[in-house]
Amino acid sequence: MFDQVTLKLNVDPLILGALKEDITSEDVSTNSVMPEPKLGEVDLICKEDGIICGLQVFSRTFQLLDDSTNVELYVKDGDKVKKGQALAKVTGDIRVLLCGERTALNYLQRMSGIASYTHSVATLLEGTGIKLLDTRKTTPNNRIFEKYAVRVGGGNNHRYNLTDGVLLKDNHIGAAGGVKEAISMAKEYAPFVRKIEVEVETLDMVREAVEAGADIIMLDNMDHDTMKEALEIIDGRAQVEVSGNMTAENLEKLSGLAVDFVSSGALTHSAPIMDISLKNLHPIQ
Fold first, then answer.
1. How confident is the model at residue 150 (pLDDT cuts 50, 70, 90)?
2. Separation between Cα atoms, residue 52 and residue 82, nearest integer Å
3. What are phi and psi of 3, to 5 degrees?
4. What share of residues in the chain are helix, strand, coil (percent, to 5)?
5. What is the share, in percent, of the chain residues with pLDDT greater than 70?
6. Pairwise CA distance, residues 66 & 78, whole Å
7. What is d(CA 57, CA 54) in angstroms, rounded to the nearest whole number?
8. Angle at CA 144, nearest 5°, toward 141 and 149?
9. CA–CA separation, 38 vs 93, rounded Å?
């Protein structure tokens, strides 16, 4: 759940932006059938099994339109939910319920889909000691929601943005003139409290990264045997992250490898939405 400061400073403006995208001047459909305020209620129904996530954002969407809207939740973020399960009841001005429906559901479906997919991947890593990480491959202006959903699903956040830490990727290395040069320059520039991570693609690059004193070495798109050799070269002198096409379907390549982290862009860029609907809207006065 987002704390009140984060909610007001960083979440509310994004929700308001999404609402403005959907309502540029008026909701013509709603105003056609509901010209005057009328109290009503609607049920939030789960249409497939999964992990629910984003209930606070769902509720906030309606409350930003009308702070008298009441959302009675029957579940909490992180709960396993089943097809056909009632998740909440929303009560308020029917015009608000209709205007906010799509935006509220877009957030809830997307966040629940990410949490559900993350949970399925995290389950495959249980007992291995490997931490599952997300990446910056997120939907523009939705990173705060998507990275929260990863945590709810049992994953961990990598750096939130470019300010958070040093990650020297292939193009940084190319710009600097090599692995050793890039690490040396980063050590000179970056605050001493920041760890330096470097992405490597070959065993020669692994050797350079170890010799230059990288804190974390990311093995990118390596097969099982190459990763095994890389780990022998590193020999505990740096933490090890594995990346590159790390989906639920191919995690078996990590079998028997003592790595610290696995990062997967698929957690946020490829998770399908979870099917959730608002049903049975009716007046109550």
1. very high
2. 10
3. -70, 165
4. 45, 20, 35
5. 100
6. 27
7. 5
8. 125
9. 5
For residue 82, give the 3-state DSSP assignment: coil
pTM across the whole model: 0.94
CA–CA distances in Å: residue 83 to residues 51, 57, 121: 11, 21, 21
Residue the block writes with tokens 């799509």: 102
C-alpha torsion 75→76→80→84, nearest 10: 30
Burial 153-177 (b: 16+ CB within 10 A, else e): bbbeebbeeeeebbbbeeebbeebe
Residues 76, 48: Cα–Cα separation, whole Å: 16
SS3 label, residue 231: helix
Of 187, 226, 186, the residue nearest 205 (C-alpha): 226
Residue numbers annotated as active site: 137
Instruction: State what percent of residues in the chain have pLDDT above 90.
Output: 88
